[in-house]
Amino acid sequence: MKDKQISIMFTDTSVRDYVVTADTIEEAEKVFDMIWNHKEQSIVDLCRQYSVRPKTTIWVHYHLGDKIIQSYEDDPMRLDTNEEDIE
Prior knowledge:
Layout: H1 25-49, E1 62-64, E2 67-71, E3 79-80
Antiparallel strand pairs: 1-2, 2-3
């Protein structure tokens, strides 16, 4: 007779801050995305290997110099720099 298996939920609440130096916001986002996607893919691979069912909640805070750049609630990846476009 096989022993009954157990399921335990672990919650990781760590916060990592990445300071990316680049010429543009878009370039900095690209570097951050590469780092984040690499980390996430590694986690997905391990979860598949060990039959772990992950649940992920994501939020991102942007800081540009001394300014805090807010994300739009309807589209978290669209930035609001609180600066009007000057043409």
